[in-house]
Write a structure and sequence with these properties.
Chain lengths: 84, 177
């Protein structure tokens, strides 16, 4: 951007409102969920039936396995399982 | 406090520093959100899915990034691709190819958001209290009274503080260009 007049700066600043705090917090908690994610991935690698259940119904299979299906955990598992 | 560069942040994240991860999410959360809802006009539900998907991929694949300075364009590209995938899924009834979704308008919005992120980096460099005051007024749309109450400042002084902070931010940005 050239010509940094205050009016333009103000206009540009308005383009980046904060993301909903819950989304940000969920993404920030990914490292905390890592142990649970690793354990689910390991189980899926060792147990084809469990993997099939995960792929068919990720949320249901996680609930069955006693793991909280937060949006960030779901997104991370989709990446790890190659479903996303 | 000096702000860490994108490359420093990426390097710390790779080393398992959770504070750095928090900062990285904080730094790019607005950008990812804005791309989803402003450039691609996703619904809040779809935007949330894309948001979580982007950061899950960043977290999982950070070690694949060859140039740590390139985290911003990488995140932009990832968000763009996932938004297009999401739009394709929601338009399954009819054909929706990339050309249909990738309009000039999207590119223009990307350009503006890149500028906004640069200004935001300037805001980080200016530091407090200007960062908080300008963020509350321009990004969170808070009134002078709300800002005054939150920061323990007389609301009658907020307008002049905003003006002074904008001047400071302008000087910071001009020093960078």
């Amino acid at each position: 951007m050239t010509g940094y007049d205050e009016e333009r700066i103000a206009l540009v600043l308005r383009l980046l409102p904060p993301a909903p705090p819950g989304w940000v917090q969920a993404a920030q908690e990914l490292p905390l969920a890592r142990a649970a994610i690793e354990s689910i991935v390991a189980r899926a690698e060792a147990d084809a039936a469990f993997r099939a259940r995960l792929v068919a119904d990720l949320e249901g299979a996680l609930e069955e396995a006693g793991c909280e299906a937060t949006p960030s955990v779901l997104a991370s598992l989709r990446v790890r399982l190659g479903a996303g | 406090m000096a702000t860490r560069t994108d490359a420093e942040l990426v390097s710390r994240c790779r080393a398992g520093d959770t504070d750095a991860w928090n900062e990285l999410v904080e730094r790019f959360s607005r950008y990812v959100y804005a791309i989803s809802v402003q450039a691609f006009r996703l619904s809040q539900n779809d935007a949330e899915d894309v948001f979580q998907d982007v950061f899950a991929r960043v977290y999982e694949h950070l070690d694949r990034l060859r140039d740590d300075e390139a985290v911003r364009p990488w995140i932009a590209q990832l968000t763009r691709r996932l938004c297009i995938d999401r739009l394709r899924e929601s338009r399954r009834e009819g054909p929706a190819d990339a050309e249909e979704i990738e309009t000039a308008e999207v590119d223009e919005t990307f350009g503006k958001l890149d500028q906004a992120l640069t200004v935001r980096a300037g805001l980080d460099a200016v530091g407090e209290p200007c960062r908080d005051i300008l963020d509350r007024f321009f990004c969170r749309d808070e009134s002078y009274k709300a800002i005054g109450d939150a920061l323990g400042l007389p609301s009658g002084t907020i307008a002049s503080r905003i003006s002074r902070c904008l001047t400071k931010l302008r000087a910071e940005l001009e020093g960078r260009s």
